[in-house]
Design a protein that fits this description.
This protein is an alpha+beta fold and about 230 residues long. The protein contains seven helices and 14 strands. Strands 1-14-10-11-12-8-9-2-5 form a nine-stranded mixed β-sheet. A three-stranded antiparallel β-sheet has the order 7-6-13, with no helix packed on it. Strand 10 and strand 11 form a beta hairpin. Helix 5 packs antiparallel against helix 6. It is globular, with a radius of gyration of 17 Å.
Length: about 230
């Protein structure tokens, strides 16, 4: 990214609702807001999460998903109701011009009066399969690297739909989200990269632990429960 790049945003929040025919509740469907919203340490005041054991929290307070990915998904999947406008992937922020290739762990952004920092990539879960009526959607998202990312809130504030997202600082620009994804999901047992991830203090602790466990066990964790809902 160039110095202090600025991006227009679509700001989205959503309530908990039934997720298709899954028999589960979810807040994955997000909708544009038309007024300023408070951004607190655990997320937007008007936003909801159905299961805070795995969604939301300090390291996953805000989800960002690039809107340009929608065009690619429509090409690959065909028409889907959840691909007609931003909000299909549970994102709170939608932009164009900013993808996992551009953004790095630790990047700091100003949005409205709030200050946020990229904490980790998104780990897709089985709820995407129901959201998109595609049995392997979560696996597709993981394999593609088009997963979006999360922010932690460094300074709470107020965010309005007309505000812009501005990059102020880059702590570890060499660790783009694409590089992190490739190390965790493609080149899965590259010990040098795993050591780098384990030592990346600005990365969410849960993600650093993945690297530590692989280094210790020399094994890759089983993703089936998260991706397929086999619980």
């Amino acid at each position: 990214m160039t110095d202090s790049p600025t991006f227009s945003i679509t700001l989205l929040t959503g309530p908990v609702a039934a997720l298709g025919s899954s028999g589960k509740d979810s807040a994955i469907a997000k909708y544009p807001v038309d007024c300023p919203v408070a951004l607190l340490p655990q997320g937007f005041e008007s936003d909801a999460q159905a299961d805070r054991r795995v969604h939301g929290g300090l390291e996953k307070a805000v989800h960002h998903y690039p809107y340009e990915h929608y065009t690619t998904w429509r090409t690959e999947l065909g028409p889907r109701p959840a691909l007609t406008e931003p909000g299909g992937f549970g994102e709170n922020i939608s932009t164009t011009g900013l993808t996992e290739h551009d953004v790095a762990v630790g990047d700091i952004f100003r949005i409205g009066t709030a200050l946020v920092q990229v904490s980790q990539g998104r780990q897709p879960c089985w709820k995407l399969n129901h959201r998109f009526e595609t049995p392997d959607m979560s696996r597709r998202v993981q394999q593609s690297g088009r997963s979006g990312w999360y922010y932690r809130v460094l300074e709470p504030g107020i965010v309005a739909p007309e505000d812009q997202l501005t990059c102020l600082d880059r702590v570890a620009p060499e660790w783009t989200l694409h590089r992190l994804w490739h190390a965790l999901y493609v080149d899965k047992m590259n010990l040098d990269k795993l050591k780098g991830i384990a030592a990346l203090e600005v990365l969410a602790e849960g993600w650093r632990k993945y690297a530590v466990r692989r280094l210790e066990s020399r094994r890759v964790e089983d993703w089936s429960k998260r991706l397929d809902g086999t619980e």
